[in-house]
């Protein structure tokens, strides 16, 4: 963890506050931004470590927050994890408080609904870009593509939870590894 200790707590706070302030579009859009900043720009975390953190983050609660917490923890332990999570949440908390006040003060503005409806296509595009980017770097062979398509089908067609898909993929991978080892 020597490399990670060079990142100051102030730098962790600034980066995750920026991600929290500029990351719009839901979980995958924010995860894509977090990956771009922490993996590609800052080079704080490798792609494999980031993907492991993303997988862990899928298990419980909001995975974009969990991924940020994982990176902060990777960089500076529990203090880094709490700081990254707090910095990531702070802009949303401030903005939601401000917007709530504005809404309850001026709740009869039809222009507000029009503005919010216009953001939906942008959010969908950001999610697709994130999925394609992550898919290109991790899904390489025929078996990987089959696993990715099966996971997508389970989620899209059968409303399977992320935890169910991860557990199924784990058992599948363990079984496949055992089968290959036994039938060499």
TrEMBL record:
InterPro entries: CHR_Transporter, Chromate_transpt. It is found in: Cell membrane. It is a multi-pass membrane protein. Its main location: membrane. The chain crosses the membrane at residues 12-33, 53-75, 82-103, 115-134, 146-174. Keywords: Cell membrane, Membrane, Transmembrane, Transmembrane helix. Belongs to the chromate ion transporter (CHR) (TC 2.A.51) family. PANTHER family: CHROMATE TRANSPORT PROTEIN-RELATED, CHROMATE TRANSPORTER. This is Chromate transporter. The lineage of its organism: Bacteria, Pseudomonadati, Thermodesulfobacteriota, Desulfuromonadia, Geobacterales.
